[in-house]
Design goal:
This protein is mainly alpha-helical and 180 residues long. The chain contains 10 helices and 2 strands; from the N terminus they run αααααααααββα. The protein is elongated, with a radius of gyration of 18 Å.
């Protein structure tokens, strides 16, 4: 679709700007306050861009923001089906799997994101994915694999998973052979 057509499509869905990042931000902010309206806007985007990863990923985020994890998962799977070699969709799916306590599913998705990132020489998600995968390995009791992933992340790494977690905490869990 040409930029002119994208602008026209954006105007038809309520005057949203054509820049995808701005559209995404606007709709996610809207989803926090008016989830039905946000869903309506993203559904209109899907009519215009039915074969685009970003629209399915955006609707997945809207569902997630409004607490509908099942539909969020279905839409992120749709995005992955459109373009498998996009690491961000796999990391998003892993985040959803973690929320569902599906740690094996999360490990699978994180492994895909890491592998795709390595093939594309796109390492933006690498540390985050390895850190989260180490957490998942701890949750299933594979502390050796967790330690291996943790060797690849910075010592001061910390991120929100089920709560704020640090590399030091996960390494301690590996030593203790349990994660609280």
């Amino acid at each position: 679709m040409t930029p002119t057509n994208q602008k026209a499509a954006a105007q038809r869905i309520g005057g949203l700007m054509t820049d995808r990042q701005k559209i995404r931000k606007e709709i996610i902010l809207l989803a926090r306050q008016e989830p039905e309206l946000a869903l309506d806007r993203v559904n209109n985007l899907l009519i215009e861009f039915p074969n685009e990863v970003w629209t399915w990923s955006l609707r997945s985020d809207v569902y997630h923001t409004s607490g509908d994890l099942e539909n969020a998962m279905l839409d992120i799977d749709q995005a992955i089906g459109i373009r498998f070699d996009e690491p961000s969709t796999h990391s998003t799916k892993a985040r959803y799997c973690i929320q569902k306590s599906d740690f094996e599913g999360a490990i699978f998705s994180l492994s895909n994101a890491i592998e795709i990132g390595e093939k594309l020489r796109f390492f933006y998600f690498d540390s985050w994915c390895r850190f989260n995968r180490a957490f998942c390995y701890c949750k299933i009791g594979d502390f050796g694999a967790a330690e291996e992933d943790l060797r690849a992340v910075d010592d001061d790494m910390q991120t929100w998973i089920d709560r704020l977690r640090s590399k030091a905490e996960l390494l301690e869990a590996c030593r203790d052979r349990r994660l609280d």
